[in-house]
Amino acid sequence: MCGIAGILLDDDSEIDSHILKSLSSSLGDRGPDDLGFLGWSGTSPVQITRNPETLQASRIYLLHRRLSILDLSSAGWQPMATANGRFYIVFNGEIYNYIELQTQLEALGHPFYSHSDTEVLLAAYAQWGVSALNKLVGMFAFAILDTWERTIFLARDFFGIKPLYYTYYQNGLAFASEIKALLKLTGIKRRVNPQRLYDYLRSGLTDYGDETLFADIKQLPPSHFLKVSLEQPQQIQIERYWQLELNQNLDISFTEATKHLQHLFLESVNLHLRSDVAVGAALSGGIDSSAIIMSMRHLQGEKLQLHTFSYIASDSSLSEEKWVDTITEAANVVAHKIQPAPEDLITDLNQLIDLQDEPFGSTSIYAQYRVFQGAKAAGIKVMLDGQGADELLGGYRPYLAARLASLLCQGQYRKAREFWQRVAKLPGTNQNKLLLRAIGLLLPPNIQASVRQLVNKDVKPSWLNRNWLHQNGLIPTIYQGKFAQEILRSELYSALTETSLPMLLRYEDRNSMTHSIESRVPFLTPALVNFIFSLPEEFIIAEDGTSKAIFRQAMRGIVPNAILDRQDKIGFATPEQKWLNSLRPWVEGVLNSEIANQIPALNLPQMRAEFQAVVEGKSVFDFRIWRWVNLILWAERFNVNFEK
User: Fold this and answer.
1) At 508, phi and psi to the nearest 5?
2) What is the predicted pLDDT for the residue at 454?
3) Cβ-contact 610, 160 below 8 angstroms
4) Region for 307 from its dihedrals, namely left if φ exceeds 0, alpha if ψ lies in -120 to 50, beta otherwise
5) Which strands make up the sheet holding 382-384, listed edge to edge?
6) Counts for the chain of helices (H) and strands (E), in that order
7) pLDDT of residue 481
8) How would you label 100-116 residue by residue, b for 16+ Cβ within 10 Å and e otherwise?
9) What whole-number distance in Å separates Cα of residue 364 and Cα of residue 574?
10) How far apart are the first and last CA of the chain?
11) CB under 8 Å to 264, separation ≥6 — which residues?
12) List of residues 6+ apart from 86 with CB closer than 8 A
């Protein structure tokens, strides 16, 4: 796990070594163990060094920051080259099946001089080219220089676990693992992307597709590669190399599917345990993190010294401590508990905003930040986490409405009525809102706005400056289904690719890497995801509304039944309303700040009135308040320009 960056110019323009050092320094937390630089003019020999001051004028610069996880020796140093000097790589991520790939490549005549997955990845690309990507099991963002073809090849993993951003720079191209690194380059504008600003303020959406909140900075989408020629550095070619198999419907029994899911999951966890350093795990007490931890113990027995790290909410209604204790006792782990106070948030908030690059949706991100902070203090460099499971297996309450909508769409009215009645008994559900949401998912997009207003989800809230919306030609985003009769599957696909997972992976990446920790997510492999998406919807959400139905059954005998039988859903939930109430003077100061008055998208008088109503209990709290505060502070920290 590392940080990478690069600059591709259209001539031999001089790049000051201070710029390269600044880029490297900005990615230092991602790779505190080592660093390396590459320079190539296109005619003279490639230069590789730890000191950028020794690089001569070049057209291509690559840099790498190393977090040593596999092969801790100098043999794993990057930039790394093939023996014939054709290919050079800088790589961020882990290839979990590198041992199996190395065996295949050795049979094809490739020698290996290290025990690193980087060397295997480089040899795989040299052997198979783009086709190598679909042979990988892992998380990755990398750049490969081909000196014979005179091209740069960038690729990002299947689900976007590892980040990769790019921008046009000095008639060429620059890329990096983080936005803040690109902002170190002179001349990179900080103009806001109006559509992304609206999406964030209205719905908390970020990180999907190829755009960012900065108009001039793009991200390479998940499961895509980018290729660019040294001769035409601003003419990029972007292609998708993998697609989730959406139309595959397996004819399989629940029992057969359960056995295969257990096999795939245990296989994935086993691969994700490959490491030359200590491995820990995040534990919320929910099904997903508990399944990972109990599987780790199941696979490796008592020989594995296992540390778990848990956020414990101070609010008893949000605390999962009893479930955390259930797992720590069953798995016989070294348990670490973290319980931040609201005052801690203010202390750490500027750093949190800086490291995240873009605004984030709630203070639960801070809880995660503190968990990784605790892991670093305990000397852990690798953590396993359950990200992606809720999006795959219908773990959030709104998916109940999607399942109800599917039954209605398919004309299964009796089943729909029975499902609706049973689901009403689950904690955290409202029968009327459930039905309204289900109906809304069935309506044509042009009338969904009216239904959203019925459930207090106005697509043009009064705290937004509607003149600004009009001036920027913004069209409020409205859900549009992708599958004719399988609404749940459509919602899960949307969450996996647009509405939920992309931003959760960004939060996880930044929170872990700022503490120099590699966070691994074993639910997110192509084999596992493709299989789950091929199953009937009733395997995901059962007739009584039980979410993750097939996964709960697959984990019987491995995870304590008390965890598998849970019907509530909490996760890393913070007592956000209480926190903001206790920090009222601070929030009011942010809403009245000079920078707030410079953001044309906001209707500040209405925002202040709504916050006052929430504090006084006259209005229902939701995450919009945190988004206001976060945006204002982000705009100040990053000196964002809101002009066209």
Assistant:
1) -65, -45
2) 47
3) no
4) beta
5) 334-338, 307-311, 279-282, 382-384, 518-520
6) 26, 18
7) 52
8) ebbebbeeeebeeebbb
9) 6
10) 37
11) 525, 527, 528, 531
12) 126, 146, 147, 148
Q: Determine the Cα–Cα distance for residues 414 and 9; give it in Å rounded to an integer.
A: 64
Mean pLDDT of 178-201: 95
Query: Which two structure tokens, joined as six digits, stand for 395?
Result: 């773990």
Kindly report, residue by residue over 7-60, the tens digit of the pLDDT: 999 886 778 899 999 999 999 999 999 999 999 999 999 999 999 999 988 999
Residue with tokens 């909490």: 570
8 Å CB contact between 383 and 517: yes
The residues near 20 (Cβ < 8 Å, ≥ 6 apart) are 37, 52, 55, 61, 63
- The candidate with the shortest Cα–Cα distance to 473, out of 195, 248, 176, 229, is 195
Tokens of 70: 């596999």
Residues 62 and 18: their CA atoms lie apart, in Å, by 14
Mean pLDDT of the chain: 91
- CA–CA distances in Å: residue 95 to residues 53, 142, 166, 273: 32, 12, 23, 12
Q: For residue 566, what are its two tokens?
A: 């849970």
Which segments of 479-586 are extended strands (E)? 518-520
Residue whose entry in the numeric block shows the structure tokens 């968990």: 371
According to DSSP, the residues that pair with 219 across neighbouring strands are 165
The rounded percent of the chain whose pLDDT value lies above 90 is 73
Q: Show Cβ contacts of residue 303 under 8 Å, excluding neighbours closer than 6 positions.
A: none
Contacts for 248 with CB less than 8 Å, ≥ 6 apart: 530, 533, 534
Tens-place pLDDT, residues 210-239: 999 999 999 999 999 999 999 999 899 999
| Dihedral over Cα of 345, 215, 507, 202: its sign | positive
Q: Are strands 172-176 and 165-169 parallel, antiparallel or unpaired?
A: antiparallel
For residue 300, with 0-12 CB atoms within 10 Å meaning exposed, 13-18 middle and 19 or more buried, which class applies? Answer: middle
Parallel, antiparallel, or unpaired: how do β-strands 334-338 and 47-49 relate?
unpaired
Backbone phi, psi, residue 372, to 5°: -70, -35
Query: Using the 8-state DSSP alphabet, how is residue 215 labeled?
Result: T
Q: pLDDT at position 440, please?
A: 85
Between CA 544 and CA 540 the distance in angstroms is: 11
DSSP-derived secondary structure for 152-187: EEEEE-TT--S--EEEEETTEEEEESSHHHHTTSTT
Of the candidates 370, 4, 20, 1, the residue with the CA atom closest to the CA atom of residue 178: 4
Of 508, 218, 188, which is closest to residue 356 (Cα–Cα)? 508
Name the token pair of 250. 């397996």
For residue 264, which of 486, 40, 551 has the smallest C-alpha distance?
Answer: 551
Helices (H), 286-430: 287-300, 321-331, 342-356, 364-377, 389-393, 398-409, 413-423
Token digits for 535?
């199953």
